[in-house]
Amino acid sequence: MKPAKILAWVAIAVGIIYFFVPLLGTFEFSLRMRRGEYSFDAYESVFSDAAFRATFGYSMLMALFTIIFGMLLVVPTAYWVRLRLPQMRPVVEFLTLMPLVIPAIVVVFGYLRLYNSSSYIPFTGSIMGTNILLVMSYITLALPYMYRSVDTAMRTIDVRTLTEAAEILGAKWPTIMFRCIFPNVMSGVLSGAFITFAIVMGEFTMAALLNRPAFGPYLQLVGANKAYEPSALAVIAFAITWLSMGLIQLVTRFSKLAPSRA
Amino acid sequence: MNAASSPIIDRRTVIDWLGIVPFMIFALMFLIVPTLYLVVGAFFTPDGHLTFENIAGLFTPTILSAYWISIKVSLASSLGGALIGFFLAWAVVLGGLPSWIRSSLLTFSGVASNFAGVPLAFAFIATLGRTGLVTVFLREWFGFNLYSTGFNLLSFFGLTITYMFFQIPLMVLILTPALDGLKKEWREASEILGASTWQYWRMVALPILWPSLLGTSLLLFANAFGAIATAYALTGSSLNIVPILLYAQIRGDVLHNPNLGYALALGMIVITGLSNILYIWLRMRAERWQK
């Protein structure tokens, strides 16, 4: 065996040890709740906790709103920039990357100062307003991923020809948008949606500082107060991330296999 | 159509620009104005006078040490992540391993780079905490007490090792395409000219790769610098890093000066901003070779 190949196997072995031991450790720890034997007691305890169900459901709902409103914002913008305002492309792309530059905690700090109950736009003055602000903060966090996946999908279709064809057939712009553009970039929309889902489900900073009962702050609370449940929750969270990424792969593979519709 | 013949601006142009108004309003309201508010606030006293006191206030021992620990953790985890990530990417691209290892590694990296925050802290507590799998294993099988060596998961070293769990995969994901871009012809040409493997790497491959390597390390640095959830769940507020200090400041004004909090946020933006600007610049250099 060539030395390069041995080194390659060593690198992979180190990687496997580093990545699998913590996952194994977490799983093993989550089974240790009953003294002297392995059991799924920690999972039972988690699932029977009313706060788990409430916060999990709340975060799911927030993720859903984030995906819907985020996509309603991102898809038309990406479409419009490609079709009519190519000169604005660098600006829009720059803005969509900003959330990777400005730490989330800084953004939410700004919200708390700008939109507090004594300001002109008192988002945090009511529960509903705070929920809206939370969804907006999640859209901001997910913006780089959503925009990139939609824009990549849009690159593979000819936006101009599609639009002109639809216009010639007498379509108005809602028809063009929702029956022509959206279905054609569905793979990008879905990829973006799944990654957004993974981000929102585990997000801690925004929800904690906006004081909303989301899954992330719940995880932190359990971690500070219980022994075995956090490991069970980590296993569940890892499964959610894995599921989201698996679905993205599935969508990308499916869209590559499917004959291009135009 | 010039301005003299049509006093109103072209209708189509107006419609064109109206199309991105929703996005611009969103970006202004939820990204730009909140950030600018803090940046501007950092230069004012609470009663509205221009001052540099807040910026000067950053240079006090507590805050400086917070920045210093943050920079150390981010630097260590980004360099460690870059090194191991580079070797993993190299192994699957050029190491002659079966192709299923490559696709598994890339899939796994996609998952692991998104597995951060609070659950990641739990995973490491369950593994390297006082009753974690590895700690117990070492104690019961080798009689080796990890914690007697001064190791502590809730410390600089523990946080670094934890952060690397999302840093390494990120490096793998960004660097694999860069390594794919190394053309076979370059290697063959250097071999024909009599270069050794070491000379090839030192004089051909690394000079081409270094913008990607360094650029990605900067990205990892910024990534670790802004992270809070993992650190907070791991150490509570016992480790004095900038995001945790800022978190405490937002919750309860621990610095006793709201505008000093703005300066703290400004410091974070400056550091992550600088590393991102450098990253973008290096990436543009790196892309010259990836065509």
UniProtKB/TrEMBL annotation, chain B:
Q: Where are the membrane-spanning stretches?
A: 20-44, 50-69, 81-101, 121-142, 154-179, 199-222, 229-250, 262-282
The UniProt entry's sequence similarity note says: Belongs to the binding-protein-dependent transport system permease family. CysTW subfamily.
Locations listed in the record? Cell membrane
Keywords linked to the UniProt accession: Cell membrane, Membrane, Transmembrane, Transmembrane helix, Transport
In terms of Gene3D superfamilies, this protein maps to: MetI-like
Quote the protein name from its UniProt record.
ABC transporter permease subunit
Q: How does it sit in the membrane?
A: Multi-pass membrane protein
Boundaries of each ABC transmembrane type-1 domain copy? Answer: 67-279
Q: What is the native source organism of this protein?
A: Neorhizobium turbinariae
Major place of residence: membrane
